[in-house]
Design goal:
5-stranded antiparallel beta sheet
Amino acid sequence: MRSAAIITKATTSALEGRKAIGVPDWQLNLGAEWDMLFLPGLTLTGRMIHTGKTAVDPANTLHIPGWNRFNAGARYATRLGGKPVTFRMNVENLFDKDYWGTSAAGYLFVGSPRTLSLSASIDF
């Protein structure tokens, strides 16, 4: 199977027909939210990210393997002092999966470890 990102014009003809670096064979992002009926204002969130095998050099001799990452979170919308407030908690890379990512310039980076973030916002 060929990637949709195929080099068609290059300064070196040997690179024509190769996969572009930093572009995975497949990519899928799937997200969902669930409003909890027993507690109005509470929403649970989830996201699955799949990135397929990716070439990291112009000749396509080096690849990083595909990977999956799962994120989960919750948010709670309420009112404090008559003002709308939203509290958020998110966990990125829920299962602490080790993976490599790449950019279109061919730079490799280590995927983020499990990361917890908390935030609150208020509308004035």
